[in-house]
Amino acid sequence: MKIAPKKNIFPTLADIKHPLKASAPPLKPNQQNFQSNFFFENTIGKKCRKISVRRPNRISFPKIILTGLGIVILVSTLAGSLIFLKFGNPKTLILAKAGLIADNFQQALTALNNLEPQKAIIFFEKNNSELTAIQNNFQRFHLTKIINWGGFFGRTLILNQSALAVSRNLETLQTNGLNLFLNGGGQKLTEIIKNLQKEIGKIGQAANSIRNQIASMSDKMAFLKVNFFNLNQINRDLTNGYLDYNAKFYQLEDGLAGLLDILQSKNDIHWLVFFQNPAEIRPAGGFLGSYADLTISSGKLANMDVRDIYDPDGQLEKKVVPPLPLQVITTGWGARDANWFFDFPLSAKKVTEFLEASKIYQEKNIRFSGVVALNIKVLESVLGLSGPIKLSDYQFEINQNNFLKEIQKEVEAGADKTRGEPKRVLKVLTPVLLEKINNFNEGQKKELTEKLKFHLSQKDVMFFAKEPRLQNFFSQNGFDGGVYKLPDNFWGSYLAVVNANIAGGKSDFFVNQEINLDINLDDNGKASNQLKIKRTHSGSAEKDYWWRAANQNFLKIFTSPESRLVNLSGNSQKTVKPPVDYQKNNYQEDPDLLAIEKEQQFSEDFNIWAGKESGKTVWATWFNLPAGKTKTLEAKYETPATAYRLLKTGQIYQFVFDKQSGVDGKLKVAIEAPSGYKWQESQSYIYEYQNDNPPARLIINLALLKI
C-alpha cells in the first residue's frame, strides 16, 4: 500500500498510519495548527487557476494604432527605470515582487494560524520594505502616469501596514493580556483591543480600494488591448492572500466589538469558570464539581469567588426533571449535572440557567455573561510551568504529576469534608496559582501560550458567550465545543463517541478507550460501517475506592443523520425507574431536554435508545466496565448517500470526527472506496488514518479516482 499524503487532512491532524508500521508519537503542542483560531481555513488544498480558451481577435487598423501607441508610451516611460531596477523589463520586476510579497503574506497568515503573531510580524515587515521600495521607484520614474501602478502598490502597502499593526497588537495581548486583566490594567487592555478594531477597519477600507483599482486598471488594459504586466497573474498573486482573508478580519472585528461591550460595561460583569474533572466524565467534559464566579469591572478582574457546585444547588428551589439516566443518582436536576449535552454551548447555557435560579444569585439579580470551561489538564500544565506549590493549610505539596490524586483525596476524605467544605482546597490553591502565573517570566509566558494553544486544539478549553457577536466568533473558530454542523448534500460519515459516568466514582482516570471504524462504500455511495469501541479499566489495584469503582457508563454514539442500525452487541443491561412521580410532585420539564427525549425510542432488540440530537442520529446505551476488565462494544450500521450519486473521478467523500472533551484514546479509521475506484490521496482502494490522541475535530476529505 502506498503512503497516503497529508494534503487532504486538516492541519490539526497527525500523520496517517499504515498497517505493519509503528505509530508515530503524538504531535507536540507547538506542532499543532488547529482550527481554534480566526485565520483557520475550512478548505483543503490550494486554489486552482481558472483556464479559459478564447478565440483569436481579428486584427484591425484602429486596434494596431491603439496597441502601438500604448506600447510606445509604456516603453518610453519605463526606459529610464530599467537601469536603476536592474531587471530585464518592468514585467519581470512586477511579477517577481508580486510573487515574493504574496508568499510573505501567506507565511504571515500561517504564523497567525498557529497563534504566532511574532513570526507574522517578521513577514509583514519584509513586505513593508518591498512595497515601499516599489512605490518609491514608481514615483521616481513617473510610472504612475499610465495606469497608477504606484497607487495600487501604495494601497497594498497600507493594507500590509494595518495587518502588521494587528499582529503587533495580538502579540501584546498574547504576552501581557492576562497580566493586564489580573492586575488592574483594564484601561490598557481596552485600548489595545480598540487599536485592533481600528487597524482591522483600515484593512477593510484598503481592500475595497484595491478591488476598485484593479477594476480600473483592467479597463485601461482592455482598452489598450495589451497585458504588458500580466495583470491577471499580479491580481491573483497579490489579492488572493490579502482579500481572501478579509472576511476573517471582519469576523475578528465583530468578535472584538462584542468583547469591548463586556469590558467597557458600566455595570459589573459576571463570567463563569467551570472546573471540569474528566476522572468522572460527562458529555460536555468532566464532572462540574467546582466553579469560579469572576467579577469584571472596567475591563479588569475585580473579584474571584471559587465555590463548590453544591452551594448554589443547595439553594435551588426550582424543581426540574433530570435526564432519565441521571435519575439513578438524583431526584432533581441541578447545575452539577447540567453539562449533560455533548454540544457545549447548550450545556453552558443550561448550567448558567440553574445557577442564576439559585438564591445565591437570584436574590442579587446576578446574571452571567459567559463561560470558560477548563479541564484538569490545563491546570496540570500551569503547574508544570510554575513548579510545585506547598499549601500551608495542608500536609502535602501540589505538582503537575500528583495534582488530581491529591486534590481528589482531600475532597473525598480530607479534614475539610468533615467540616462541610470538601472543595476548600481549591479555594486556597486558585489564588496562589494565579499569583504564580502573574509572575511568569517571558519564557514561561511563551510556553504557557503554546500549552494553551494545544489545550484548545484538544477541547480542554471551551468558551461560551451570551453576547451574539462574541459567541459567533467562538463558534466560527471552533472555540465553543459545539457539535459540527454538516453541510447541505453531505456525502460522508460523521462520528462522535460520548460517555457519561453515572455513579462510577472517579474511575475514568483509569479507563482507556480505543475507537475503530471501518467504512465500506458501495456503487451508489451508501456506506456500510463497522464500529468497535474498546474500553479497559486498569484501576483494580488502586487503594482508594473512587479509582477502582466499576465504571458505570451511559454511552451515546452520534452518527450521520440518516444512519440505520443493523446490529449492536457488547452493551450492558440496566433499567432506570423514576425515583418519584414527577408530575404529582410538580416537577418542571426542561424544554431543551424534552425536545431530545421526545425523539427517542427504545429498541428492545438492541437494548438502546435511538433518537436525534444536534442534527445527528444517536444511539444510547449502558456500557459498564468492572475494574481490571476490558470490554468491546460493536455496532454495525448503514449510512445511505444523501441523494442518488453518479460516482465519478474527483468526487469528494468527507469523514468528520468530533472528540469528547476530557477523553483521550486511539482512533483508527479505514475507508474503502466503491468498486472500480481508488482514493487519490492513498492511490489505493483503502485509506487509513490512525492517531493515539486525535484533535478536537478531525476532518478528512478524500477524492475518488477511477481505476
Q: How would you sum up this structure, described in words?
A:
This is DUF4012 domain-containing protein. Pfam families: DUF4012. Keywords: Membrane, Transmembrane, Transmembrane helix. It comes from Candidatus Jorgensenbacteria bacterium RIFCSPLOWO2_12_FULL_42_11. It is a single chain. The protein is of the alpha+beta class and 707 residues long. It has 3 domains: 184 residues, no CATH class; 211 residues, Aminopeptidase (3-Layer(aba) Sandwich); 189 residues, Immunoglobulin-like (Sandwich), CATH 2.60.40. It is built from 19 helices and 21 strands. Strands 13-14-15-11-8-17-21-19 form an 8-stranded mixed β-sheet, with no helix packed on it. A 6-stranded mixed β-sheet has the order 12-16-10-9-18-20, with no helix packed on it. Helix 2 packs antiparallel against helix 3, helix 2 runs parallel beside helix 7 and helix 6 runs antiparallel to helix 7. It is globular, with a radius of gyration of 29 Å. The N terminus is likely disordered.
Topology:
Layout: H1 61-85, H2 90-113, H3 117-140, H4 144-147, H5 149-182, H6 186-224, H7 231-244, H8 246-263, E1 269-282, E2 285-297, E3 300-308, H9 310-314, H10 344-357, H11 359-362, E4 368-375, H12 376-386, E5 389-390, E6 397-398, H13 403-413, H14 415-418, H15 424-438, H16 442-457, E7 461-465, H17 468-476, E8 492-501, E9 511-521, E10 527-537, H18 545-548, E11 553-559, E12 564-569, H19 591-597, E13 601-603, E14 608-613, E15 616-622, E16 630-639, E17 652-658, E18 665-672, E19 677-679, E20 686-691, E21 697-706
Parallel strand pairs: 1-4, 8-17, 9-18
Antiparallel strand pairs: 1-2, 2-3, 4-7, 5-6, 8-11, 9-10, 10-16, 11-15, 12-16, 13-14, 14-15, 17-21, 18-20, 19-21
Helix pairs in contact: 2-3, 2-7, 3-5, 5-6, 6-7, 6-8, 8-17, 12-16
